[in-house]
Write a structure and sequence with these properties.
This is CAAX amino terminal protease self-immunity. GO terms for molecular function: endopeptidase activity. Residues 178-268 form the CAAX prenyl protease 2/Lysostaphin resistance protein A-like domain. The protein has 279 residues and is mainly α. The chain has one domain (2-272). Helices cover 69% and strands 4% of the residues. It has ten helices and two strands; from the N terminus they run αααααββααααα. The chain has helices spanning 2-6, 8-25, 29-46, 51-67, 72-90, 124-133, 146-165, 179-225, 232-252, 255-272, and strands spanning 101-106, 115-118. It has a two-stranded antiparallel sheet. β1 and β2 form a beta hairpin. The longest helix is centred in the last third of the chain and has 47 residues, at 179-225. It is globular.
């Protein structure tokens, strides 16, 4: 928290974006969009968003608004475009977004390797697009089943001993001074956005067509595949984490359970193990 307070002059625009994400997650759509607009103005002024980024982002959000009530062949084409737009933003493939570095080569502990964290202006737009386009995103799908939900969280926790055996992690207790910034960015700009796409949208859409098992498995595999550039081992662990989040979403009945499992895993990783891996 000390780091966050001492860097407020640099981070204040991003706090507006995170407030927008939090408002949207809480169901306050109009407040979220107003805050998003305020952040966009600040981001353009500061050079984080260029005219190219606006020309990419604004049409995507407009398309999402139209898709909320669209039907037929035009809707299918529109959804295809929105999915490709979302994947490209999430993978940082589109130009004009100047994502600054918030943490540059910091250490969570002496046994950990250096960690760099960006403040991404592109990926969070995916959440706002889905908030506009996908009616079921925040809806309660089914009653919460507590015991299976606990088992889903336990599956995520079981990944830690597996990673230790595989040599991917080592135990290390730490409390870095930048933990406050990490919590906000990881929860709202990473976990919320990723879970909204993979569980709140993709898994829901797939389970409606191929059933729960197929939808959870497919979304988990796709979540793993996007981590392939980090290596096959990371892809495998990401797939299993995706399965835990998918089961959490299914048995919890709401997006928030997937988000909290994902974020809880990341926070435990930081606090009790070498992060992002051993030196």
């Amino acid at each position: 928290m000390i780091y966050l307070l001492s860097h407020l002059t640099e981070l204040w625009p991003w706090l507006i974006l995170m407030a927008a994400l939090g408002a949207g997650w809480s169901g306050y759509k109009r407040a979220a969009l107003v805050l998003l607009g305020l952040w966009a103005c600040a981001a353009v002024y500061l050079g984080v968003l260029s005219i190219v980024a606006l020309a990419i982002g604004a049409p995507g959000l407009a398309l999402a608004t139209w898709l909320r009530s669209a039907t037929g062949t035009a809707a299918a084409i529109g959804w295809t475009i929105l999915i490709l737009w979302s994947v490209a933003l999430g993978a940082h493939l589109l130009p004009g977004f100047n994502n600054p570095i918030a943490l540059d080569g910091v250490l969570s502990g002496p046994e950990s390797r250096p960690f760099t964290m960006h403040l991404n202006a592109d990926k969070p737009l995916v959440f706002f697009a889905l908030l506009l386009a996908w009616n079921p995103l925040l809806h309660q799908d089914r009653p919460t089943r507590v015991f299976p939900l606990i088992m889903a969280a336990a599956l995520a926790l079981a990944l830690f001993p597996m990673a230790i055996v595989a040599g991917a992690l080592s135990p290390e207790v730490s409390w870095p001074d930048w933990i406050g910034l990490f919590v906000l960015v990881n929860l709202l700009m990473t976990c919320l956005t990723e879970e909204a796409f993979f569980r709140g949208f993709l898994q829901k859409a797939l389970t409606g067509r191929i059933g729960a098992a197929g939808g959870i498995a497919s979304a988990s595999l796709l979540f793993g595949l996007v981590h392939l550039p980090a290596g096959a081992a990371v892809m495998a662990f990401a797939t299993l984490l995706g399965a835990a989040c998918g089961l959490g979403h299914w048995y919890g009945g709401r997006l928030r359970y997937a988000v909290w499992i994902h974020f809880g895993f990341n926070l435990i990783h930081l606090l009790f193990f070498t992060y992002p891996g051993p030196a």
